[in-house]
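Internal tracking record. Fields below are filled automatically when a chain is submitted to the structure queue. Please do not edit lines marked as system-generated. If the sequence contains nonstandard residues, flag them in the REMARKS field before resubmitting.
Queue: standard
Priority: normal
Entity type: single polypeptide chain
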Amino acid sequence: MIIKGSEIKECIKKSNFFNKNKKAILFLLLITNITLTAQDKVSNSVRDSTLTLLNEYTKTNQPDLPTKAFLFAEQKGGDTLIRNTYINFGIKSYFAKDLSNLVLSEKKLKQFYLKTKDTMALAKHLYFKGLYHKLQFNPDSSFYYYNESKNFSVQLKDSLEATRRLLSMAALQYDERDYLGSENSIIEGLRFVEPLGNLFFTGLLYERLGNVLFITGREKEARKNYLKFFELQKQTPGLVLKYEEARLYNHLGNTYEAERNNLKAVEYFKKSLAIDSLKFNSVYRYESALAGLSYNNFILGENKLALKGFLEVLKSRKDRNYKRGLVITHSNLSDFYIGTNDVNNSKLHAEKSLELAKSISFNRYILENLARLSSITKGEKGRLFLEEYRVLNDSLVERERFLKNQFAKVRYETEKKEAENVHLKEENSRKELLLETEKQHKIIGWLIAGFCILIIFFGISVVLSRRKKMLFKAQLLQVEVREKERQQIAKSLHDEVAGDIRMLHLKLSKTNQLEEAEKLNVIKENVRNLSHQLSSESFDKVSFKDQIINLISDYFDFNFRIKAKNIDDVDWTKVNNAIKRTLFLSVRESIQNAKKYAEATELILNFSETKKTVLLVISDNGKGFDVKARKTGIGLKNLEERILEINGTFSLESDIGKGTTIKIETFKNEN
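SYSTEM-GENERATED OUTPUT FOLLOWS
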């Protein structure tokens, strides 16, 4: 609550104290107002000074400026100014690729958190660690710290900051070709930001979703999301709408180009180029539109127009030293010259594109240019290009698979940790309730005992027999309380201790502490015998869900999407290992059949459970077959036999042109 000086004066005037000490009080108020005004001026001066240093650092990248700003803010400013100074310089250090000052900002934020317990500073510290690893080309570490930062923002209920981290995660996954993971991160971000009504970030997420859909061959869906993005941009204040319109036209042109509708693509790229002052005020979009127009003119046979456009784009990107764009333009020119049978010029531009792509680790175009050079270069040199292509392609495929697994593991471990935290909170609440109940029982016991003693003290001379009766009742009550405590201990052994020992035993086993695990197993068996509770075995060293995730990752392809629905709805800890193994093998066999024989582009795994059974429905959109006329294949026959061996049921539905559906129902335990 803020009270104005005029209100204070009015209150004082109404009192007798003011009348007696009028001059002294007015003098005190004057001094207070002067002091507050001076403090405001000092605060504004410190903020202005740090902003001046920030602007200078942005222009010059002088490495000593962040240290000067930090020292100044720490000596003169408050906590909020200090934290914001660390954050602002950290972001500028990242864009300047100034690793030493980025690390300095990250460490300063951690020290600030340890001093103030400001969780926002901790979230930014983790974010900057992610940025550092991104600049060091460690995408798995970068993704881990982005995710940790996002989790702290969620705890702070800062949905906007969580959305920003998810955008960073989605971009990283996109760059590493984990398109399914990127799509999931974007959708999670939309769930955070849409309720806030933040038009800018909601639109940005829809644009990123359009990019993922475009790169995975879903051009129509991509266009819908690009149009959503533009509608939100139109409602966002402060944006120059005509340049956002150019951005939309470029996206739409790219989708039609991917569909080989080159005339439609040309139409949209021309619309973009027709926007007033685009070349001078939004050069990146101008270059993209001109490059797109030139490529589609080339495809349509308009070679003169195409070459003129490519050369203009090349000059523009050279002038601003835009290396990524130069890689693409040189590659386009190499394609162009191949199309016009000018092998020498094609080779020249392919080599320039390759050199630049290697300097910035632009792997997609490194591969593209190696493949092109291997086809147009004769002799030993051409063979060397081909060998380099093969080695790099194999390593990138392996790296891509590794990163997909790492990204999935980080998300899975986070979800697991959140579930464990919820469980711990519930457990703590239950224990607190138990302690409170025991405390109340003790208080009640003491009150009853005291009441009994009081009655006995006053009635000892009159009703000796009644005293004995009351003492007997008190003893019975204490016995009842102790019995309840024994029951509670037994229940704790049954519900808590046995389960906790089992979890600890599993963790020890997984970390190869076999001797300690064996001793703990003996204790577990004793507790289990006491509580008459059988414990179920784990599904080897990797959970069923994790194995399904890895399986999906192994078979994921741009033209073959696999979705797992409701896998978390099944309590897999209650399902026998043999059952899980059979379901896993059934899923793998079905994926292989759908991809290899059915020519499907999508397969859906739908899990559900009843009290006693697990139901798995596997459906694909492949070419299908006539079930009645078919000869039983070995794969399907083996699949059916596996299910029957565990007393499950197996059914198969398929029609030509309508895909195939397999339904499997098994008991949760073999018997």
